[in-house]
């Protein structure tokens, strides 16, 4: 039953965001009694942290570590996979981390800490790839890999914000062009 | 009374976002009877569009058109003013456009259209400045000013998403460094 709740919450948090997704929506979606929720989770907040961990496992970080692929090709594959996920949902769901940061980080410290950790882990993985590309002489070393990684991660999150308004791929196109042709040079 | 409602809504939408801010919260905050709301606005959605227009007037677009200032200095002043606003609110409120795009664009077409228009107007203003900088030979012409403008606008929105998780200025710092030292070269 716990697994049913987590799976339903993953779907509903992603679809509706944190604030608009209540415990009843989650238990209805999981087809379990609302009362059973608190046998498994202390709070909606505690469940949201479990969902964030699970969401993190789907963020295609494996593509940043593909053997025998050049660093920037790996980075491109990573963002292409993320873009495809967004497109597959008709640009309607966004990123759970970005959604939670925007909606809930202000008033729920545990959510803010969870988003912060998720972004830090992600930025560290991107930074390692950029450092490799710098060592290969492909990316300028005038900027630290950490600054470039944080900038790109945020630019990606912002491209999603843009796409949710336009749903036409224009923000993703600008991201790929400027990130790979200008920033990572 | 209409003006009281708009001012209260501006504050409450900015503070709580779209979904968590109901009509009663707005009328309570405006110190007007809840029943009076619908004498002035057809819906919460209609009021949100008025608030978006008003918010747009505060987005420091005037700094993009300061006479006798170099294009990139104007662009920097613009983003610095936006950053200061966010810092002044303790990184807790974000951008109304970005918040609405993330929270409400999916299920409310009028909000999505409003955000899209706001981002388009903003991108156009940034693009004009970048074009000037390109004409002056300061920014590379390998990318169109529109693509660079859209990329920077989204990167800014994403930097806000990042700051709401960390509240330490690190995402803004990465934005200013990479935007002005790498992207706009």
TrEMBL record, chains A, B:
Protein name according to UniProt: Transcriptional regulator
Keywords, comma-separated and alphabetical: DNA-binding, Transcription, Transcription regulation
DNA-binding region, residues: 22-41
Residues covered by the HTH tetR-type domain: 1-59
UniProt organism field: Lentzea pudingi
InterPro entries cross-referenced by the UniProt entry: Homeodomain-like_sf (IPR009057), HTH_TetR (IPR001647), Tet_transcr_reg_TetR-rel_C_sf (IPR036271), TetR_C (IPR011075)
